[in-house]
User: Which sequence fits this backbone?
């Protein structure tokens, strides 16, 4: 009997547990942050961190049906909540949100962190430290630098998605798979590059722009990733344009798909490459460090605006021309990185891995060594097909 | 005292989590403090030390001749010296249980339940273990056996999901930190491996006692392999950032790329943490109350369970340790007294047992002749 009673009491005790725990927060009490933006502002000579949050407002009950009826089946769009807060530390700035946010600020679902240009120039290790300590922030968050203030960019409107947060996330998530004009980074990858001697971080640079398709009188701006922000250690030191970014993506071995261009027999020719084989080697000659990259493209002809002759010699000539052009572009990209002192390709790490003894000598003055070292690039291009077409379309079929 | 009998497989399952339960939470931090890039060597040192201890365990088990470990120690060293040695071990064990509770509850609070009072988390971790121990070794072993396969499945799933983020360059150059730091990184794991000596207390309840050393070595090999895999993963995925993370295992799970089917895998950490440490606490508490009851000459260990649990909670409350304090303690003081207890004590018993065997005729070695 006593056994039965004690079992019943235990079961009742379990029922009590079903209602939850100390840390329970009902979904309707949460302010689900989608994008976080961090800037630095000066107020009377004192540095303040400015954190801005973007959250999708939940649609009121029945609003979908209502708006659907009003707009004749167009569907309703929920609004956004954008708010910013300033503090002498980021923790303080976050805490100040409690005076404004009607719900618990919840960062578990945040996917994008924007860093203002001024903050990036001043150094980002403070915010990395804060983000990594913050229990709710995931290391998978995309890290993006903004041209100008990050808060100002939040007033941009999405061109396709309902919410700016979705637009940003989807550009970062899917855009990178379609071309090599930008490469996304996240809190983990970026922090590793800040912490590792011999490699510097980079991040996509986000612009607000006036879409050429819209009326100039309209003040609303859209967003696009236009350049790449280069860092030395944790400080922003310069930018690469789209062409140069493609070079970095290729040389870092992360290339997915892109186009090579050449002018052949008076007309432009484009080759669509998919995947690139890259190998790099560092060596020491006469006490001077040298690095060499071997880049092998394989692709198919995607566009020909010249009379087509598919002899082996023609193809070889075209391959050499494309390789020469690509080599020039890649060399220019590396020269710019060297000028800026940003070792985003991790040549220092390559020295460290391949020649630990040499690395020990140069570790302390690596930036100087990097900026003055010879970096050579060998490029080969192999054309493997012509896609669905064969002969090019030319007037009178010549 | 204990009527249950467990199989070799069950012994491996419970001992796996007895060591791995907190190892998966704490050791990555300890190892990374000294050798983040060559962290996997910490697991190799663990395996080497643990295997050495398994040989000692096997040799002692062969000499026990039907006696439990407490009786055997008293036979070898004499009643009072034997009791004293066992009590020293029990003092270590009692303190270690508080450390286990501290680790598990601290990391649970930091990672999952920041607003829940620590005492509540402690109670919820302790209660199932106490109940399992109350039911006996067989209950602990059967739970361990069942949960072992689930948790191993979780590990394998996690490894497969994180493979796309595996950057092998982060593991190079090998031994970058220097051999002395690599060896230093293995000191705390070595102390952890010492927990395999708990097997000595379970010898009389294992069905095939002649294979004790094999079971113990198999446990160490499995943990060593899992440890090498885990450490490589942490370094390959997080590089030098792993030194800055309070819980690399949890961070790894949270870093898994969301898929269209499953967006969050955080629950895997809860599963492994709960399952592993339920077994760990159960075995720790079981060995403590069993050995104490044997020393005191009690017929059952069960009356000791609740007082021991209350004592644990009191000691945890009296010696609170924040995670940084705990990490510092495990890195510095803990191996200094743990390695002598867990390795030195069995070695002493083995040497004394061998000497005794050599000088005293076989027929006089039964405890009845004391």
Assistant:
């Amino acid at each position: 009997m006593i056994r039965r009673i004690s079992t019943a009491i235990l079961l009742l005790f379990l029922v009590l547990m079903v209602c939850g725990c100390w840390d329970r927060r009902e979904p309707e009490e949460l302010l689900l942050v989608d994008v976080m933006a961090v800037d630095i502002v000066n107020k009377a000579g004192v540095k303040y961190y400015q954190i801005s949050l973007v959250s999708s407002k939940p649609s009121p009950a029945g609003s979908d049906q209502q708006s659907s009826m009003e707009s004749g089946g167009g569907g309703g769009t929920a609004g956004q909540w954008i708010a910013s807060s300033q503090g002498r530390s980021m923790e303080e700035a976050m805490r100040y949100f409690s005076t404004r946010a009607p719900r618990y600020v919840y960062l578990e679902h945040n996917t994008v962190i924007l860093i203002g240009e001024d903050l990036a120039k001043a150094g980002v290790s403070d915010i990395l430290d804060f983000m990594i300590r913050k229990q709710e922030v995931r290391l998978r968050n995309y890290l993006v630098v903004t041209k100008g203030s990050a808060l100002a960019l939040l007033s941009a409107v999405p061109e396709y998605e309902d919410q700016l947060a979705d637009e940003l996330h989807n550009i970062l998530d899917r855009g990178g798979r379609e071309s090599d004009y930008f490469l996304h980074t996240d809190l983990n990858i970026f922090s590793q590059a800040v912490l590792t001697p011999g490699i510097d971080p980079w991040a996509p640079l986000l612009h607000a722009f006036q879409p050429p398709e819209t009326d100039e009188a309209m003040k609303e701006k859209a967003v696009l990733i236009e350049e790449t922000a280069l860092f030395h250690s944790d400080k922003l030191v310069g930018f690469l344009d789209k062409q140069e970014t493609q070079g970095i993506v290729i040389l870092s071995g992360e290339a997915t798909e892109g186009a090579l261009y050449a002018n052949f027999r008076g007309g432009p020719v484009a080759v669509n490459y998919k995947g690139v084989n890259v190998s790099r080697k560092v060596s020491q000659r006469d006490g001077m460090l040298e690095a060499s990259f071997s880049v092998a493209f394989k692709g198919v002809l995607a566009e020909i605006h010249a009379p087509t002759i598919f002899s082996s010699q023609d193809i070889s000539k075209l391959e050499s021309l494309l390789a020469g052009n690509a080599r020039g572009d890649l060399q220019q990209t590396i020269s710019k990185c060297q000028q800026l002192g940003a070792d985003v390709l991790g040549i220092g790490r390559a020295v460290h891995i391949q020649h630990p003894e040499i690395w020990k000598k140069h570790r302390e003055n690596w930036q100087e060594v990097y900026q003055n070292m010879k970096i050579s690039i060998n490029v080969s291009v192999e054309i493997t097909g012509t896609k669905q077409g064969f002969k090019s379309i030319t007037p009178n079929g010549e | 005292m204990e009527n249950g009998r467990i199989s070799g497989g069950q012994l491996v399952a419970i001992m796996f989590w007895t060591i791995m339960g907190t190892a998966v939470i704490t050791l990555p931090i300890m190892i990374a403090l000294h050798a983040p890039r060559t962290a996997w060597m910490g697991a190799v040192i663990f395996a080497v030390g643990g295997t050495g201890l398994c040989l000692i365990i096997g040799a002692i088990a062969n000499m026990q001749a039907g006696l439990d470990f407490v009786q055997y120690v008293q036979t070898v060293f004499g009643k009072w010296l034997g009791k004293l040695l066992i009590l020293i071990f029990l003092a270590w064990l009692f303190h270690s249980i508080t450390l286990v509770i501290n680790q598990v509850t601290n990391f649970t609070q930091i990672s999952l339940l920041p607003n829940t009072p620590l005492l509540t988390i402690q109670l919820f971790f302790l209660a199932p273990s106490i109940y399992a121990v109350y039911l006996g070794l067989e209950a602990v072993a059967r739970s361990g056996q069942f949960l072992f396969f689930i948790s191993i499945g979780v590990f394998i799933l996690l490894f497969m999901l994180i493979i796309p983020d595996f950057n092998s360059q982060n593991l190079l150059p090998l031994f970058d930190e220097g051999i002395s730091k690599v060896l230093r990184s293995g000191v705390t794991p070595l102390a952890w491996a010492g927990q395999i000596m708990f097997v000595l207390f379970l010898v009389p309840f294992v069905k095939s006692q002649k294979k004790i050393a094999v079971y113990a070595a198999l446990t160490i090999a499995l943990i060593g392999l899992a440890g090498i895999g885990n450490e490589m993963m942490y370094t390959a995925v997080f590089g030098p950032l792993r030194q800055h993370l309070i819980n690399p295992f949890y961070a790894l799970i949270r870093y898994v790329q969301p898929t269209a089917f499953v967006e969050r895998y955080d629950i895997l950490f809860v599963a492994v943490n709960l399952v592993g440490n339920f077994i760990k606490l159960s075995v720790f508490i079981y060995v403590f109350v069993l050995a104490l009851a044997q020393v005191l000459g009690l017929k059952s260990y069960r009356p000791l369970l609740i007082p021991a649990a209350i004592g644990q909670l009191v000691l945890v409350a009296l010696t609170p340790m924040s995670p940084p304090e705990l990490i510092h303690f495990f890195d510095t003081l803990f191996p200094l007294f743990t390695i002598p207890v867990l390795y030195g004590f069995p070695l002493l018993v083995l040497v004394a047992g061998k000497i005794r065997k050599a000088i005293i005729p076989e027929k006089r070695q039964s405890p009845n002749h004391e």
